[in-house]
Design brief:
The protein is α/β, with parallel strands linked by helices. Helix content is about 50%, strand content about 15%. The strands form three sheets. Strands 2-1-3-4-5 form a five-stranded parallel β-sheet, sandwiched between helices. β3, α3 (about 60-70) and β4 (about 80-85) form a beta-alpha-beta unit. α5 (about 110-140) runs parallel beside α9 (about 240-250). The two termini are about 60 Å apart.
Length: about 450
């Protein structure tokens, strides 16, 4: 794994040392000697991670970090504070400024590379989600969220895994006022709980007596349901080798014993903020996909979705030797509705028409708005005769009850013409079936409208 790392330090010897270590591991390295220069490089070059000294003249590292995290362009870039300061209060100040982690000088090579790789992995996932969310923003589907806007102050659901009573009771007491904490002593049961429930964060003791915590972390990362669940481990200061291994396995954050109350609370807030930011990105992506295949007026699937899914349904039916029928419906004289009553009334007719279709077909049938006043119903495992019965029922449901449209002066009498076609031989394509349905629809229109016509199967 490679990435571009920005090293920020006013001491040239420190810059050269970190640059040499990172370059030896094939990372691309950018450097800056003060906060102002660093901010310019971050905004211009978009590094994958920033190693930021705290004590610098002019603008200190805390302020630089705060500005990176407040910038909509750079807020998602991980920041590691590199400092000689090692008190819990300093770490809390950095976390509140948005820092993702701390490394204490002199920096251990193993700790440096493990932490950089871990945060770069996280950023790659975030970058992919943000790129797709940005596409949705350009299409006007939703706004791109900010990490700082994620609601970290709201309580989260936390699963605490610790087999030592004193340790887990103290940890729970620190965070239970703000969060819902579930305690599990048995690591295997904790895995089952994590899979079955919706937790926002998992806190795990690295010092489990009768179970390898690293195996638990590995199992959590190998299961789809828990792959994105943040994991914070608590470990002993002399257990750094296993901590480095935990970071390699995908653990998100850690605390060293004895646990400082304020630092634990700050790290929990940081992980919850990142989790909710990622959740919003994924939700935006799902919404973008939904918008891309959904007709906004009726809520039905649109033609783009229909063309892709119909190909699958036709292939399945042909392969299994099962029938498949397609109804192509067209509202009669729809232009007159728009011309006489206005487009608002026309939209209301379209919505009510879609509702009546949905109320009179099966849940397995695919109903799509084909375009304008045309709709398609794809009916798997349905022959032409049964499809004809359904089409006639739809025709009656439309013609039999006038449409009560609020924007119209009176009830509107609406009728529909329907063309039916089905699979006639195993090599039929969706285009073949739709063409025959369109020919049948044309015959229904030519015969006087408000009727059903079908091709012979």
């Amino acid at each position: 794994m490679t990435a571009r790392v920005l090293v920020v330090d006013d001491v040239l010897a420190n810059v050269k040392l970190l640059e040499a270590k990172l370059t030896a591991e094939y990372f691309g390295v950018l450097t800056a000697r003060d906060g102002k220069e660093a901010l310019g490089i971050v905004e211009r070059a978009h590094p994958d991670i920033v190693l930021l000294d705290v004590m610098m003249p002019g603008m200190d590292g805390f302020e630089v970090c705060r500005r990176i995290k407040q910038n909509p362009i750079t807020h998602h870039i991980p920041v590691i504070m590199v400092t000689a300061l090692d008190s819990p209060a300093d770490r809390v100040q950095g976390l509140e400024a948005g820092a993702d982690d701390f490394l204490t000088k002199p920096v251990s090579d193993i700790a440096l590379l493990a932490r950089v790789r871990s945060l770069v992995r996280l950023k790659m996932i975030t970058d992919e989600l943000m790129m797709r969310a940005a596409t949705g923003e350009r299409m006007g589907l939703q706004d791109l969220p900010m990490l700082s806007e994620a609601e970290a102050e709201l309580g989260g659901r936390i699963l605490l895994v610790d087999d030592r009573a004193n340790s887990r009771n103290r940890t729970r007491a620190i965070i239970s006022d703000a969060h819902e904490v579930t305690v599990e002593e048995n690591p295997q049961e904790a895995l089952f709980r994590a899979v079955d429930s919706q937790f926002d964060l998992m806190i795990v003791s690295l010092s489990l007596a009768n179970f390898d915590c690293l195996r638990l972390c590995s199992q959590l990362r190998s299961v789809d349901r828990t792959r994105g669940l943040p994991i914070l481990v608590i470990c002993e200061p002399d257990d750094m080798a296993r901590l480095i291994r935990a970071l390699d396995l995908g653990v998100n954050d850690y605390l060293l014993r004895p646990v400082d109350k304020n630092e634990l609370q700050a790290r929990v807030r940081t992980q919850l903020r990142r989790k909710r930011f990622a959740d919003r990105l994924r939700a935006n992506l799902e919404q973008s996909i939904e918008f891309a295949v959904t007709d906004p007026l009726t809520g039905l699937h649109n033609r783009r979705y229909m063309e892709g899914h119909m190909a699958t349904l036709v292939d399945q039916s042909a392969h299994r030797g099962k029938p498949l029928s397609v109804l192509l419906l067209d509202i009669d004289h729809f232009k007159a509705v728009n011309d006489t009553h206005g487009h608002d009334s026309g939209d209301a007719v379209i919505r009510e028409f879609a509702r009546r279709i949905l109320n009179n077909v099966r849940s397995v049938d695919l109903v799509c708005r084909y375009g304008g006043e045309e709709f398609v119903v794809i009916m798997p495992e349905t022959d032409i005769q049964v499809a004809g019965t359904v089409a006639e029922r739809l025709r009656e449901r439309v013609a039999g009850e006038p449409f009560d449209i609020p924007s119209a002066d009176s009830l509107l009498n609406v009728t529909v013409s329907v063309g039916i076609a089905g699979i006639e031989n195993p090599i039929d394509t969706p285009a073949d079936i739709l063409r025959r349905a369109d020919e049948a629809l044309y015959r229904a229109k030519r015969a006087g409208r408000n009727r059903v016509a079908a091709t012979a199967a």
